[in-house]
Prior knowledge:
3% strand; mainly alpha; single chain
Amino acid sequence: MLTILFDGIAYGMLLFVLACGLAVTLGLMNFVNLAHGSFAMAGGYVALVVVNDMGWPFSLGLVAAFVSAAALGALLERTLYVHVYNKSHLDQVLFTIGLVFMSVAAVDYVMGSQQQFIRIPAALQGQFDVFGIGMSKYRLLIIAICGVITIALQLALLSTRFGSQLRASVDDQRVARGLGVNVGVVFAVTFALGSGLAGLGGALGAEILGLDPIFPLKYMIYFLIVVTVGGSSSITAPFFASILLGIGDVAGKYYVPKLGAFVIYTIMIIVLIIRPQGLFAHGRAR
């Protein structure tokens, strides 16, 4: 049971790294970006190429995944996304889902349709046995990275000038501009950060989840569930929702393997019946 709990927490942490960028764009920018998984896939494939084919260290592969996905996000935000910020959510959904199918086709053409995995260093393979609990070294790394990201994001949003500018821009763009805030730059940096985090999550998750061209479609619903269950008003909300869903998903697949895939959806339905705005809907930082 403790091993399942550990694996569930690690899986939940991975879900958070993958989904926190969507929580930023959807919860803080009020933009429905269903193409979020495409940035995760882009980061994953960049890490795969530089580590497996070019022989870079795994740590530099993670850095390359974050930087490349952030740069791609910044480019697309300035050239494409900026034109649909003020459109309806339906227009945003249609626009971003179109980008998903374009990215799937492009990656399938360039990288092939087979599933691939990143080669992780020997130091991260194997596990520790602590009081009978098998702790994977790689999953411990994921937990550590996720913890640092959660704390850093929360501090950035609550304790920095940029965080104040972002919240002001989201609440009222006109007033924010009147106070001297460059809303365009704030949104561009925020979008790039969310895309970079998605790319980092894609690189970290490639060893566990695998990479293939349908990655954005396969895990899109998981990203949306994390944000929906937690509520999209803060960073800590999707974090705790990710932990809950990760433990539930792993435990369900272990104890009831025939129905395990439905556990995460069952949790979502129950939460939304009891708390339609999400478990942590009132946790918005001001």
